[in-house]
Amino acid sequence: MDIKKLEEAGRLILEAIGEDPLREGLVETPGRFASMMAEQMAYTEKSNEDIAKEFDKTFVSPGSDVVIVKDISLFSHCEHHLALMYHMTASIGYIPKGRVIGLSKVARIAEAVSKRLQIQERIGSDIRDIMERITGAEDIIVYIEGEHSCMTARGIKKPGSVTQTLSSSGRYRTDPVLRQEFLQTIGL
Ligand SMILES: [Zn+2]
What we know:
Layout: H1 3-16, H2 29-40, H3 48-54, E1 58-60, E2 67-78, E3 84-95, E4 99-101, H4 103-114, E5 117-118, H5 120-135, E6 139-148, H6 149-152, E7 163-168, H7 171-174, H8 176-185
Parallel strand pairs: 2-5
Antiparallel strand pairs: 1-4, 2-3, 3-6, 6-7
Residues 78, 80-81, 83, 148, 150 line the site of zinc ion.
């Protein structure tokens, strides 16, 4: 992450919109902008494989048929506008194949993939991919809903419009009953 370049970019944005980067109140803004971006994009240079390694802690399944982690709150940035995706929640279900992952790790994985430029669909498929790498499970489903400021605060301006995406594999893709059961459990 090039902090110096981020600071420079922050200063350039201020100049480009006609602001005076030296006025009181803005003097430290490029620096703040740089550290905020660095934090929010912290996983840009990490692959799904890297993230899977980082959170690779599983234990023997106590025998549950289905594991569902509901309503993990997230935010990310869309790659088309660098705009905030907010009020975002992810719910993840999978059928363990002998091993399960700690529930807090599931949330950490979702946060990690959100800390790079994203589209909502890919947040779902990234989570699914990493869950599969760690647990070996083949039946995984990820539901995400969120608001995108590039839709709600500019252009067509549709405040409150929510984008819903579903990413599934294995039996969650082929078995409508299983799929319906998951959607019902998360309240859809
Ligand atoms: Zn966008």
